[in-house]
Amino acid sequence: MPKTATTFACTECGWSTSKWVGRCAECGEWNTVVEAATPSGVLRAVNPVAIGGARRARPIVEIEADAASHWPSGIVEFDRVLGGGIVPGAAILLSGEPGVGKSTLLLEVASKAAAAYDRVLYVSAEESASQVRLRAERTGALHGNLYLAAETELGAIIGQIDAVAPGLVIVDSVQTVSSENVTGLAGGPAQVREVAVTLIRVAKERNIPILIVGHVTKEGNVAGPRLLEHLVDVVCQFEGDRQTPLRFVRALKNRFGPTDEVGCFEMTGDGIAEVPDPSGLFLSRSVIPVSGTCVTIAMEGRRPLPVEVQALVVPTEASNPRRITSGVDPARVAMLVAVLDRRAGLEVLRKSDVYVSTVGGVRVTEPAADLAIALAIASATSGGTVANETAAFGEISLAGDIRPAPSAKQRASEAGRLGFTTLIDSDALHVSFAIPKAVTAAPSQRG
Q1: Which of 65-69, 129-133, 298-302 has the highest mean pLDDT?
Q2: Could you tell me what percent of the chain has a pLDDT over 70?
Q3: Where does ATP bind (predicted)?
Q4: What is the chain's Cα-based Rg?
Q5: What is the CATH number of the domain that holds 248?
Q6: Residue 373, SS3?
Q7: Annotated binding site: which residue ranges?
Q8: Cα–Cα distance between 108 and 131 in angstroms, integer?
Q9: 60 part of a folded domain
Q10: Per the annotation, where are the binding residues for ATP?
Q11: Same domain, 292 and 399
């Protein structure tokens, strides 16, 4: 057996060194070099293995194409993200910040699957079984086919799978499970790699789908080696601000479906609830038009969502006026203020504080929201209003041109479904006349 030598490897690019350093010499990232045990010595020879029967390589046209069958989990929004449901034998990784609701969502999935299909094994490596039972009782996720186990050792988890013979396994979380065959603390690159490889092998060999919870770093990336994301079949990210009840689940990788679907949920006192039509969450309830507001149609994956943008312009004597934003990109707001000053003649913005925010806590970063932001700022500056039946979307360039937004037909269709009778987009060719006209003119029907 070769001896083991302690080396240090970068979790981002794989660069290795014999001594620990604070910054990776290959990719330049800080605090990504961690300890990794690798075998020393040189592999002199590899004995060939005789291949025959079904394992022998065949022409690709002779291989049967079995379509991956999805079975619904019972939560429509979660199935939307997965591409129709859970595929037998699939390894699904769900990552998110602490306290965002990952365990609550998966406990709900476990309860629905236990009620509709077969036994479900929920392995908690962070909480005791009694703590999970209390949460399940609070959220109404109790079922006789839902089995709980509090295990932190990989071998014990495999033993639980053998004993229960479940149709679905949930492991919460991969960073808190360790294997006695690998040295190092739980959560280290070597341990995470070993645990993930073993669980995925169990899923493939026994045709059991496994849902794995993953922690994230302060940058928002999945903690541990990037190999974990390559090994699993589906990578889902659970997003949301803990100050608001809204949550989004989006697929970053999906071997069985699209990666541009988004599931909407709302955290309540009784658990997590689906939001099949979130169109009213990001709009104010004011019947009378208010200056400084405009609605845009944003795209979350392939789902169009109406979002109301609000702006407030306040004169100031400060030498450097403030640009305060919430839910929008501050750099784009600063650029739009400069375009409005130069191209639309709103020179008053040079001596005014500008505040821009979205309703409902949603974050909109796509350039298609530029036109709505500009209209809201212009409306707040002039005191005019944008009609409640008006929606705007389009990217604004530094030259003042309004560029067409992607998925324009889908945005327009959603706006029409929600009752918006006036659309302002790239058909208004330049900011210099489009902004004043949109703020002061009465809304007109558009075909």
Answers
A1: 129-133
A2: 89
A3: 96-103
A4: 27
A5: 3.40.50.300
A6: helix
A7: 96-103
A8: 15
A9: no
A10: 96-103
A11: yes
In a domain, 409, yes or no: yes
Tokens representing 399 are 């030259």
What does the DSSP assignment read for 160-179?
Answer: HHHHH--SEEEEE-GGG-B-
- Chain centroid to CA 343: 36
Cα 209 to Cα 200: distance, rounded to the nearest angstrom: 9
Work out the average pLDDT over 216-225.
Answer: 78
> Are the C-beta atoms of 226 and 12 separated by less than 8 Å?
yes
**Calpha distance 356→334 (Å, rounded):** 10
Apex CA 282: angle with CA 278 and CA 287, to 5°? 115
Q: What is the pLDDT of residue 271?
A: 84
N-terminal to C-terminal alpha carbon distance within the chain: 76
Residue 2's pLDDT is what?
A: 47
Q: Which of residues 257, 276, 295 is at a domain's end?
A: 276
Q: Are residues 335 and 256 in the same domain?
A: no
Write out the E strands in 104-197: 120-124, 146-149, 168-172
Whether 13 maps to a domain, the answer reads yes
- Rounded Cα distance between 18 and 25, Å, is 13
Residue 446 lies in a domain: no
Structural domain range at position 131? 68-276
Amino acid (one-letter) located at 139? T
Confidence of residue 374 (pLDDT cuts 50, 70, 90): very high
The values of phi and psi at residue 434, to 5°, are -70, -40
How sure is the predictor about 434, in pLDDT bands with cuts at 50, 70 and 90?
low
User: φ, ψ for residue 7 (rounded to 5)?
Assistant: -125, 170
pLDDT of residue 79: 92
CATH code for position 436: 3.30.230.10
- Number of folded domains that form the chain: 3
Contacts of 85-90 with CB under 8 Å at 24 or more apart are: 86/113, 86/168, 86/209, 86/211, 87/209, 87/233, 87/256, 88/207, 88/208, 88/209, 89/203, 89/204, 89/206, 89/207, 89/208, 89/209, 90/203, 90/209, 90/210, 90/233, 90/234, 90/255, 90/256
Do 133 and 15 fall within a single domain?
no
Decide if pLDDT at 131 tops 90.
yes
Shared domain for 32 and 100, answered yes or no, is no
pTM exceeds 0.85 for this model: no
Average pLDDT over residues 122-138: 92
Say if residue 130 is preceded by a cis peptide, omega within 30 of 0.
no
